[in-house]
Each structure stands twice: as C-alpha cells, then as structure tokens.
Amino acid sequence: MALLTKAPRGTADILPNETNKIQYLEQTFAVIAGMFGYREIRTPVFEHTELFQRSVGETTDVVQKEMYTFTDNGGRSITLRPEGTAGAARALLEHGLSSDAMPQKLYYTTSCYRYEKPQAGRLREFHQFGVECFGAESPKADAEVISLAKQVFDEFGVKGLSLQINSIGCPTCRKAYYDALKAYFNEHLDALCDTCKGRLEKNPMRILDCKSPVCAEIAGGAPVILDYLCDDCSAHFAGVKKELDTLEIDYTVNPRIVRGLDYYTRTVFEFVSDAIGAQGTVCGGGRYDGLIEELGGKALPALGFGMGVERLKLLMENTDCFFPAPPQCDIFVLCADAASEEMVTLLTADLRGRLIAAERDLCGRSLKAQMKYAGKIGAAFTVVIGEKELESGEVSLKYMQTGETLAVPLKNFVDVFSEMVDQAFDEWANDFAGEEAPLPPEPALRVIDGGKGKKRPPLS
C-alpha cells in the first residue's frame, strides 16, 4: 500500500531518538536566559501581514520572496511569522509592557517559516532561540546581549565560532551613506540583478546583502558604513567594543555585515562557524531602536538576537559536542501469569508515583518476550512478579547491565527501589563535584552512566 503523503518539502520530523537533543538545547537556553533576567514570551504563529511589512521591511528578501502569506476566511491578509522580533514587539505594545519598569527582557523558543531553498541547516519551517531587550540604550546592553549568546555556546562546548560586529548607524548618518551607495551602484547599474535595481532607490544598503554572486562582487567595492557614522553612533560603537574588551570577548569588526532585516540600527553582529557549510551564521542580532516607533509606539531603544536551533544542533553534531543520552526506562515490571496482573498494575503505578520511569507489558507477551523487550528499550532494571513471588513475598531485582540480582521484600519494594534512586543521584552529584556536569537527568536512575562512562556500583 502506497504512502498517502510525505512531509512538505523544507520541513522535518523530529523523531523520539532526536527529541532529547532539542529538549536539552531548549532547557539549557531557558536556564541561561533566566540567569540574565529574561522571562519567556510566547506569541502567535501567525500575525497580520502588515506587521512584517512594516518591521522587517518591504525591500527585504524575507518580505519580497520568502513569507508564507494567505487570505483568511474573513478576507484578512495573514502571514506565518518569518522571525520572532516583530511579534514580541507587537505584544509589548499591545499589552502595555512598554509602560513597565525598563528594561523589559524577553526570551522565546519559537518556530518560523520562510520559503527558501532547503539545504543543510536551513529549512522552510525552522526554530529559533531569541532574546529581546527593550528600553536599554547603553552600549553595555549590546555587550550583555552578545555575552548571553556567547555563554550559550560556551555551555554547549561549541568551538571554532567567530564573533563579527559592525555598526550600520542611525537614520541621520545613513542618509549620507545612502547617497554614497547610490552613486556607487549607479555606476554598475546594468550588472545588478533586477531585485537590486529595485532596491537602489528605496534601500541601497540591501544590495550589500544580496546573494547573487555578481551583486556580491560589485558590493565588495562599495563604500563602508563606518566611514559615515555620526558622532553619537561612533561613540556608541566604541562603547560596545570597550565593553566586549572588558568581558574578554574576542571579535572582528566586519563592515560588510548589514543583517537581512530593515529594522536594525547601530550595532549588528553575527556568530559564524565554518563547520556547517554555506549556512555558517548560527546567531545574528543587533540593535533596532526605531522598531517600536515604527509599530505605533513611543520611541524606545531595543536590541536582541535570533539563534537557529537546527543550525546549532547541526554544528554541535559536526563538532562532537556533548548531548545527553535519550531517557531510558528505569525499571520494567514483568508479569509472569494472569494471577499477578493486578499486582503488576499497582506496583507500576506506585513506582511512577515516585517519579520513577516504570513500564509494564501492554501487548500480552510471554515472560521471555517481555524480558527481550525490556532489553530493547534499555530498561536499567527488571523485576518479575508471578504467583511464586506473591506467595513468597519476595522478588528478585535484576540490574540489566551486569546481570546482578538483589532479593527485595515485595511489600517494601517501592520504598527500597526509591531509596536506590536517591542514592544513585547522590553518587552522580558527588562524582561531578567541582566539574562541569551535564544537566542532571530525571528520574535519577538515568545517571547510571552520567554521560561520562561512570557505572553504578554493585547492588548490595
């Protein structure tokens, strides 16, 4: 029988043997964002199209070529979010957060949608970690946002990243820069792609971000924005570099970074790797002081970044970074006969009530088949309940890795096993005392190998 349909091109299923990696990334990012004072925000997956047209910019590739836009049953133009900042900014204004104490620090893990050619690290449905800091004008805020992203990479053990920074100025100093760009690109007008010809009058800086090889070569000789910064923007950029130097964060000034969205002003930055092919930018962000005003609010400084989850995962896999093992079954309760089914049900429920990952057979397998299945799912321990065990009041707990067994009174089994869980967690914590331990797994018996090859001591 033929498969009815497959997942749409540019999307990907995250299967159970991979979800633990994504959960690890999400949980770690949330912890680090919280350490910096950020609180989670969740916004709708679709917004009114004009939100992205105004914020992202009508001359960008995102708006012109990549948005998933449709008309709903009410005749409204709706767009699946292509990035996270616009929705967070809209929510800030709509719910009055801009009137609260500043800065407002928000983070999110969100799905985004862009119609692009799929390739490694770039999908049409992708996911982002993002932070948005509203109400902070100081260069210290820029450096702190960059340091947050760096701490995420450091926590995951990502190596070989380079931080590239630039300033693209403010509307005041960009006016003179736009004039210089127009004069330069007009000399090469015939060679520019049709899209860039349309950008020349509206936003010539977008030409610097064109993916066409011809336009990119021409852009290589264009004037540099740093030569046109006003005094305020120059001072702000100098302040950012000073803060990064204080934090001992290495960086390179790259005057060609402009980012792909129109709302950026002043600081822009990217963390780049050469370990994931052409899609080397793993994290990008900067300042967008004019965005809130553009959306109808009062002028409010703002900045943030977006970090691609799929690209981060790909980078970590390509550079042998640590991922925790998938969660396993702590104990499988085997049912030997029909007379024991009720006890198996109750015992399994009691173990789960102690937050222990316990499983039992649901498919009517034989005892031998149950044991085989317990091995397949990686159960750490097994215990058999049958008429013999019910009569004797004693069960045999088996540690699957070594085959060791331990006799345990049935009436005390849940208490004894729960104590073993606690002991295993304490041993794990002691083993990693003073080390950079991975996040502790739950339930605690999943630390049998601790992610570093440590083995549980013999049963006693």
Outline type: elongated
Query: How many beta-strand runs?
Result: 16
Instruction: Please tell me how large the radius of gyration is.
Output: 28 Å
Largest sheet at a glance? 8 strands, mixed
Unreliable spans are 432-460
Structural class of the helix and strand makeup? alpha+beta
Strand order of the largest sheet: 1-5-6-11-10-9-7-8
Mean pLDDT: 88
Give the N-to-C terminal Cα separation: 54 Å
**What is the percent of helical residues?**
25-40%
Strand share of the residues? 15-25%
Number of helices: 15
Question: Keyphrases for this structure?
Answer:
single chain, disordered C terminus, eight-stranded mixed sheet, alpha+beta, five-stranded mixed sheet, elongated, 460 residues, 16 strands, 15 helices
Please explain how this structure is put together.
This protein is an alpha+beta fold and 460 residues long. Helix content is 37%, strand content 19%. The chain has 15 helices and 16 strands. The strands form 3 sheets. The chain has an 8-stranded mixed β-sheet with strand order 1-5-6-11-10-9-7-8, sandwiched between helices. It has a 5-stranded mixed β-sheet with strand order 13-12-14-15-16, with helices on both faces. The chain has a 3-stranded antiparallel β-sheet with strand order 2-4-3. Strand 3 and strand 4 form a beta hairpin. Helix 1 runs antiparallel to helix 5 and helix 5 runs parallel beside helix 9. The chain is elongated. The two termini are 54 Å apart.
